[in-house]
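Our preliminary data section would be incomplete without showing what the modeling component actually yields. Below, a chain of 348 amino acids is followed by its predicted structure, encoded as tokens that our downstream tools consume directly.
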Amino acid sequence: MTKKVSAVGLLSGGLDSILALRVILDQGVTVKAINCWTPFFTGFPAADTDSDPVQPNFKALPNVLIYARNLGCEVEVIDLSDVYLQMLHNPNYGYGRNVNPCIDCHILMFRTARRIMESESYDFVFTGEVLGQRPKSQGRQELNLIARKSGLEDRILRPLSAGILPPTLPETEGWVDRNRLQSFRGRTRKPQMALAEQYGITEYPTPAGGCILTEPSYGNKVRDIWKYSDKEKLSWEDYNLLRIGRHLRVNSGLKVVVGRHEAENNLLESYVSGRTRIEPTEVPGPVVITDESADPDQELVAARICARYCKAGREGGEVEMRLDRDGASKLISVKAFKPEEIVDWLIR
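Predicted structure:
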């Protein structure tokens, strides 16, 4: 009797994931598609609703998982948020160019896939990784390290680069035909685009990092809070706040966040608890929030920063500010800082 082969597919959401899925499905393998998620990953938001009968804990599935579901795959999104911060703060293999712990992140995701593979009796795990595409995590040495440290060893199949990698267990056991796998390598997308055309896949995401930790601006903000805070006490709220507004580090005791438009002003309202909230009373301007520990002198500095981003302040006049903290309010009038006075405070 012919063995029915099954696999867990780690699908990140891009074209490579779609192609890897199609390559494996075309060989008659039953696939369970999983997507590991944290708030650092771009794509789709976590939700507090169970309205989606396919994936109760999320509002929407990324396109690649909708594609997988339409092809008859079981689909699951796994929220790694609880364990991710611990790994981020102390990665065994360090960071990439910014604050991206790519090797440790991949090990975490593959360990997650391995647990599913073992507990649900799947045969192997596959992924859309391409040899040499990402220097931090997809060189030969890194791919081997991730396979070993995840405990999967040769049960990881990378179908888009399998032809130039050593044969894995699924290939040597005849579960998949190695001759029907691909030999892609490097950062060019031309081979993937050609294969997508063969499959009739015309809509797919443009290439991107997929993780905000790879972005220099966000990385600089993360390094700043690591310098002035106890890493181990930071929460997702602290990291989410870094995605909103302009951030200015005045000194070790004061950081100020300035909303850049109405939507960000509204988002900052979720972070005012325990902080000083500052806003002009009579002219248009941003919402500004301070650190929790801001004293009156620091609040004055923050108010002058707020005035810098008001038209009236830029024109040299005084601007009346309302300062709210823990249910108490006060009004003060301030002169705006000049642009050159605050330029070195901006975290960019």
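Residues 159 and 181 are 5 Å apart (CA to CA). The chain has 13 helices and eleven strands. Preliminary results of this kind motivate Aim 1 of the renewal.
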